[in-house]
Design goal:
With 201 residues, this protein is of the alpha/beta class. The protein has one domain: Alpha-Beta Barrel (TIM Barrel). The chain has a 9-stranded parallel sheet with strand order 5-4-3-2-1-9-8-7-6. Helix 6 links the parallel strand 7 and strand 8. It is globular, with a radius of gyration of 16 Å.
Length: 201
């Protein structure tokens, strides 16, 4: 069963990418983002896309330019996540058949991103908006608009976010930190999935 969770692997190295990807996928998370400010991120994305591209959505985070979108596409990535709203980045991602998840914080940014063709919205930083901020934003968004909470959302408060209208989550340090043993990553991934399943009912 696929969960609406994006694993954010900031700091991932290409040499560990396949083992980490397998651990996360086996736990039940099939969306993986390697932020571009990681060491050698394009190689990590290429490794993940080659190994798991037919069973998982693989791509990049912290994508800030059209050039970066095109480079990620060339490596086999299909997911573009950004910390900000940029119409050109969204447009190019969609044109290349990739999912686009721009970071938004205000209604203005949310509507602009959806108008530009975003697949869904990354509410970021989630810790600043909080579930109450999302609950206030949710009623004005178009029906069917997807909102993933990122930053300040995790196993300890999935239930609050879901009640506020979150469709999914991006999970970073609660799941992966550089230098972490694969066994611990697998354990954390299983705990994240179990907490989500419980919160989602």
């Amino acid at each position: 069963m696929s969960r609406p969770i994006i694993a954010i692997l900031r700091g991932l190295n290409p040499t560990e990418a396949e083992a980490v990807g397998r651990a996360i996928l086996d736990a039940g998370i099939d969306r993986i983002e390697v932020p571009l400010n990681s060491p050698d991120p394009l190689n990590s994305i290429a490794v993940l896309a080659k190994a798991f591209g037919d069973q998982a959505l693989i791509g990049a985070g912290t994508v800030l330019s059209v050039d970066q979108v095109e480079t990620v596409s060339d490596t086999g990535g299909k997911l573009i996540v950004s910390p900000n709203y940029d119409a050109d980045v969204i447009g190019r991602s969609v044109a290349l058949g990739m999912q686009s998840w721009p970071g938004v914080y205000t209604p203005t940014e949310a509507f602009a991103a959806l108008k530009a063709g975003a697949t869904g919205l990354k509410l970021f930083p989630g810790v600043m908006a909080g579930p109450t901020g999302l609950a206030a934003l949710r009623p004005v968004l178009p029906e069917g608009a997807l909102v993933f909470a990122v930053g300040g959302a995790g196993p300890e408060n999935f239930d609050q976010w879901i009640k506020a209208g979150a469709d999914g989550f991006g999970i970073g340090s609660a799941l992966f930190q550089p230098g972490m043993d694969v066994t611990e990553i697998a354990d954390r991934a299983h705990r994240v999935v179990a907490a989500y399943d419980k919160a989602a009912g």
